[in-house]
């Protein structure tokens, strides 16, 4: 357990906001194993951070992080939710979760509720993380910001002095919002004009964008130098949403890059030309057709079995993220023998093939089949989930595999768009 003195508590050194007390001196507070606890006097927002190195934990173990606290007999404005999150170092903040401080919060609220521990303190789950065998640092974060509501507690029935304060500076509000999530920033922008300005600032949205987004834009082959410059001239908020809705071609033009709207994490699509397709260069089996996004898509003319492989380096993807790999395709008006299942799998390099999973091509495949079914995407292509993997901070290569072999049944009519990787 990290004691309060080990945590980073905003304004904890300012006596009109926080007071450091010994729980042994108070008959109201539960006994603490530490010499001091932090007692909240009066703030309009608060931020508490903790950090710990993973090397001190047991390896290959999932841990939960819990904020441990108590509430004095008298308090104000503690019914508002706080945001809690856990992340690894060098990882984007990601999505925070709502939690409630008061134990009598009605069930059914959109957030985590506290529980009473055996030692009579309260605890809220901040989040969980899997400790692999890579040395890193875990960051735990609790943020309470709900406009300018001043929160204070009373101790031993005697009211503490209340310090009045002016509105926070806009840059301070922006800094607070930058530690939340894109969704929370959009919500905060509706609070007031000041919050709207702060929530739309470059300080906030630059934190939500991938750290190397400018380099990726500069290397895009779908943008001329003037278009690349114009993108970088956008506000960070406008650039964020532009990259959510408008993938850009990168590399040799057979990849596309976008960001996930909810988290800001990276999304990649490997076009058909970037995949290894058995017999893909044989005109009697496959035909290459022009495409709107990538230069070409692969059209299946006639094969009795097929094998499609894709690969991507993990250093390209957002770290400490669970990604899904999806095979993106469509079916022509005329096709044959596509009712048979295919085998799909994902693995890391130098890892055994493992167990493949059945998947079905046709969207009208009856439910209840032993395998994954496709779904229709917003862009009207179909997709099948190949599998998922967790990208820790070890550099490796992910291999994605689709294999269709069922005797000598000749198949035709599939159009391959590519393989998409995106956070789950």
Number of strands: 27
> End-to-end span in angstroms?
31 Å
Helical segment tally? 7
Q: Which residues sit in consecutive blocks of at least 5 with pLDDT less than 50? A: 153-166
- Count of domains: 3
Strand content: 35-45%
Structural class: mainly beta
Tell me, what is the CATH class of the largest domain?
Mainly Beta
CATH architecture classification of the largest domain:
Sandwich
CATH topology of the largest domain: the name is Jelly Rolls
- Overall geometry comes to elongated
Protein name: F-box domain-containing protein
InterPro entries: F-box-like_dom_sf, PP2-like
Organism: Carpinus fangiana
Pfam family, one: PP2
Description:
With 424 residues, the chain is mostly beta strands. It has 3 domains: 4-165, Sandwich (Jelly Rolls), CATH 2.60.120; 169-208, no CATH class; 266-423, Jelly Rolls (Sandwich), CATH 2.60.120.260. The protein has helices at residues 170-178, 182-188, 193-199, 202-208, 213-218, 225-232, 236-245; strands spanning 8-9, 18-21, 37-40, 42-43, 45-53, 61-69, 74-76, 82-88, 97-99, 115-116, 122-131, 137-145, 151-154, 248-250, 255-259, 266-271, 276-277, 286-290, 296-300, 305-313, 321-336, 342-348, 357-359, 375-376, 382-391, 397-405, 412-423. The strands form 6 sheets. Strands 14, 15, 16, 18, 19, 21, 24, 25 and 27 form a 9-stranded antiparallel beta sheet that branches. It has a 5-stranded antiparallel beta sheet with strand order 1-5-12-8-9, with no helix packed on it. Helix 1 crosses helix 3 (193-199) and helix 1 runs parallel beside helix 4 (202-208). It is elongated, with a radius of gyration of 26 Å. The two termini are 31 Å apart. InterPro entries: F-box-like_dom_sf, PP2-like.
């Amino acid at each position: 357990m990290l004691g309060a003195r080990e945590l980073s508590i905003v304004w904890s050194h300012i006596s009109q906001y926080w007071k450091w007390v010994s729980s042994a001196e108070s008959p109201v507070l539960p006994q603490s194993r530490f010499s001091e606890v932090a007692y909240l006097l009066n703030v309009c927002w608060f931020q508490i951070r903790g950090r710990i190195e993973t090397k001190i934990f047991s390896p290959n173990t999932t841990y939960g992080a819990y904020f441990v606290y108590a509430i004095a007999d008298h308090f104000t404005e503690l019914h508002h939710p706080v945001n809690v999150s856990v992340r690894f170092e060098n990882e984007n903040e990601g999505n925070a979760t709502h939690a409630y401080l008061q134990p009598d919060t009605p069930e059914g609220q959109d957030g985590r509720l506290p529980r009473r521990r055996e030692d009579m303190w309260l605890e809220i789950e901040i989040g969980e993380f899997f400790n692999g065998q890579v040395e890193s640092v875990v960051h735990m974060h609790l943020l309470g910001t709900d406009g300018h509501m001043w929160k204070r507690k009373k101790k031993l029935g005697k009211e503490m002095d209340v310090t009045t304060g002016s509105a926070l500076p806009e840059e301070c509000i922006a800094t607070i919002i930058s530690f939340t999530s894109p969704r929370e920033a959009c919500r905060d922008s509706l609070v007031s004009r000041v919050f709207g300005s702060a929530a739309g600032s470059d300080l906030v949205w630059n934190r939500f964008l991938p750290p190397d987004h400018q380099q990726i834009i500069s290397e895009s082959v779908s943008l001329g130098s003037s278009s690349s410059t114009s993108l970088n001239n956008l506000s960070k908020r406008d650039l964020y949403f532009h990259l959510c809705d408008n993938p850009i071609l990168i590399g040799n033009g057979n990849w596309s890059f976008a960001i996930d709207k909810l988290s800001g994490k990276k999304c990649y699509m490997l076009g058909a030309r970037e995949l290894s397709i058995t017999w893909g260069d044989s005109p009697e089996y496959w035909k290459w057709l022009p495409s709107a996004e990538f230069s070409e898509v692969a059209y299946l003319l006639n094969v009795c079995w097929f094998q499609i492989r894709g690969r991507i380096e993990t250093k390209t993807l957002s770290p400490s993220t669970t990604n899904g790999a999806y095979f993106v395709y469509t079916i022509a008006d005329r096709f044959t023998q596509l009712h048979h299942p295919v085998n799909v799998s994902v693995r890391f390099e130098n890892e055994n093939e493992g167990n493949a999973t059945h998947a079905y091509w046709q969207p009208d495949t009856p439910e209840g089949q032993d395998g994954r079914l496709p779904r229709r995407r917003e862009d009207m292509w179909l997709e099948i989930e190949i599998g998922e993997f967790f990208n820790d901070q070890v550099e490796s290569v992910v291999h994605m595999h689709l294999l269709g072999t069922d005797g000598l049944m000749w198949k035709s009519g599939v159009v391959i768009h590519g393989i998409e990787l995106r956070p789950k």
